[in-house]
Design brief:
602 residues; alpha+beta; Immunoglobulin-like; Neutral Protease, domain 2; 4 domains; eight-stranded mixed sheet; six-stranded antiparallel sheet; 17 helices; 28% strand; globular; binds zinc ion
Length: 602
């Protein structure tokens, strides 16, 4: 049967299912969810398996590791012996037709958008972690009976009858997380669909403010896409101290953000940017998607060279939608583009070492496996992909003389999905559809940007919009105080290219940037830093004070360090610090101003 991720609540009401789960929480305090699974089956072999990864997070995570207390019983109640054929898959021999009952516990004690987390106050369940599937029967309706010891449930699963929820197939089940607890829930109707907003986390949050911003996000998206492709959508927002993450689903998003967001407006806007990002994914990734993304093999890596479409396009549009929602002024949007996207890319040496197509293909072993050396030898397809989509939008607008934008391309891609939802896109098809919809041939430029490690032509394209993208050498102007009296110089004009972090015994080098003074001095990650210019540095505070002073002087610094306990001495010569900045031309032409207004229309 064809791959399908679309479901409306009306489709599930009153259905029956031959594959049923029952979730209970007798040991929630010990972080356990108990799963009982019933499968109506013929006599013979029955194979159950648990996914090794979850779509949207491209790393094999072996969820089976947290499963225990497995039991499988034949229709007459006698216990069957599971024969494991791989780490996540077993088979039982069923003697007679009837209902096979399997049960297990799953231990969830890690907070993440891709895992399940259970404690005495709540349960957040990702079915991909917890619910095994029946080999060969993933296309059937699946029911989930939830014995919820708390008062609320927020999930895109569709109600079947009281206490029972359902999915048309296993792919939709995996795409449907559940938040159970006593959290805040509100709902609103907009553009013909129901929206639910769940807010989880202990804190004095202004819940209504979050609901109001969700309304703006939905309304702004409809201006771009024309209509909503769902009947119901659930925003699950987990506000937890020090945590961050998001995961997209077809009718839901899970957004984890620091609980202190309301303390300042800058961070509140970043939270809204995360909501915009994950919400945008319901179109791009869940529906408009690389050809490899569905149907999924949950056993192993799904390689795609097109995560630049999945995450790059979404990274460009998340800030653009944040701006279109009115959460940024035009000036704030341009500053964010400059600092968080363009300047960040220019600070990553790995952009010259790996193409974005390779970065995408190797995500399973690169982006999701961070090392201190990561940015030296690779570039994120989120970051560079976002910048490529900026260039693509600027290319389309300027070459069409303002007649088209990337929005037209997106709408055409969505129409292509609706015409053939079972199959994703190839790179050639993406280029052909966007070129046709916008009247601008994008293939020649885009293929080069995706496959090469050459610098992107930022200055050229931004220049067409009355903007200057300029490289300069940092200067160190003194700050003033009182009656314009000179005070200290705030930003050193030089840099060293290393980062340090505190450890029990003092400080260690956490990162050495490629082609930097620190690399030339012979420093390496994890080396312990003992002294700078004869001064003992045992804390970040001491380091900051001495290091900053040395950078301000621009003179060589003597470093005493140790690697695996052996002490060595190194001399580091600070070098000029390069600064990249996006500014408006003092006198843009009328045409440049006109194109800027089309690009940033809202
Ligand atoms: Zn994303």
């Amino acid at each position: 049967m064809a791959y399908n991720i679309e479901q409306t609540d009306a489709q599930l009401l009153g259905t029956t299912a031959a594959i049923r789960y029952r979730l209970t929480f007798p040991q929630a305090a010990q972080h356990l969810v108990n799963v009982e699974m019933e499968v109506d089956t013929e006599a013979g072999e029955l194979t159950l398996a648990l996914p090794n990864w979850i779509p949207g997070s491209y790393k094999v995570r072996d969820f089976i590791s947290n499963q225990g207390d497995l039991q499988v019983a034949a229709p007459d109640g006698t216990l069957l012996t599971p024969e494991w054929s791989s780490k996540n898959r077993f088979t039982v021999q069923v003697p007679t037709a009837g209902t096979v009952r399997a049960s297990w516990n799953w231990y969830g004690n890690e907070r993440s958008v891709r895992l399940s987390h259970i404690n005495r106050f709540h349960a957040f369940i990702n079915p991909a972690n917890v619910m095994m599937y029946v080999q060969g029967r993933t296309q059937e309706v699946h029911h989930v009976e939830i014995h919820n010891p708390w008062s609320q449930i927020s999930t895109p699963l569709s109600p079947v009858r009281t206490g029972v929820w359902g999915a048309l197939n296993y792919d939709i089940l995996v795409d449907s997380p559940m938040e159970l607890g006593d959290h805040f829930v509100a709902s609103f109707q907009l553009h013909g669909a129901t929206h639910e907003v769940a807010v989880i986390g202990a804190g004095d949050f202004d819940h209504e403010w979050i609901v109001d911003q969700c309304k703006i996000i939905v309304d702004t998206a409809v201006k771009l896409w024309g209509r909503l492709p769902y009947d119901r959508y659930v925003f699950i927002n987990q506000l937890l101290s020090g945590l961050y993450g998001g995961l997209e689903h077809s009718r839901c998003s899970v957004n984890i953000f620091d609980s202190e967001i309301f303390n300042d407006s800058d961070r509140a806007v970043k939270f809204l940017g995360l909501l915009c990002h994950e919400y945008f994914h319901l179109w791009n990734v869940k529906r408009i998607r690389p050809i490899e993304f569905g149907p999924f093999d949950y056993d192993r890596e799904i390689y795609s060279s097109m995560l630049w479409l999945a995450e790059g396009c979404t990274s460009y549009y998340d800030d653009l939608m944040t701006y279109r929602c009115g959460f940024y002024t035009r000036g704030e949007y341009l500053r964010t583009l400059s600092s968080d996207h363009l300047a960040t890319l220019m600070a990553i040496p790995g952009r010259k070492a790996m193409s974005i197509k390779d970065s995408s293909f190797l995500a399973w072993v690169k982006l999701y496996v961070p090392t201190p050396d990561q940015n030296n030898r690779q570039v994120s397809y989120y970051l560079k992909g976002g910048v490529i989509f900026l260039l693509l939008d600027l290319l389309i607008i300027s070459e069409s003389n303002g007649a088209a934008t990337m929005d037209d391309g997106l709408r055409a891609l969505m129409a292509r999905y609706e015409a053939n939802p079972a199959v994703g896109l190839t790179e050639d098809e993406f280029i052909q559809i966007v070129s046709q919809a916008t009247g601008v041939e994008i293939g020649t430029h885009l293929r080069g940007w995706l496959a090469s490690t050459d610098e992107l032509p930022l200055a050229e394209y931004l220049g067409r919009f009355g903007l200057e993208w300029k490289r300069s050498i940092a200067t160190s102007e003194p700050q003033n105080f009182g009656e314009s009296l000179p005070y200290q110089r705030p930003f050193p004009a030089t840099w060293g290219g290393l980062q340090v972090e505190e450890i029990k015994t003092g400080l260690k080098v956490s990162r050495v940037i490629r082609d930097s003074p620190a690399e030339r001095a012979g420093l390496g990650a994890d080396d312990e830093v003992l002294a700078l210019n004869g001064v003992r540095v045992g804390s970040s505070k001491q380091w900051d004070a001495v290091y900053r002073g040395v950078l301000l002087s621009g003179k060589p610094m003597e470093i005493i360090a140790a690697t695996e306990g052996r002490v060595y001495q190194a001399t580091m010569q600070p070098e000029e610090r390069v600064v990249w900045e996006l500014t408006r031309k003092p006198e843009p032409t009328e045409q440049e101003q006109r194109l800027m207004d089309i690009w940033l229309a809202r």
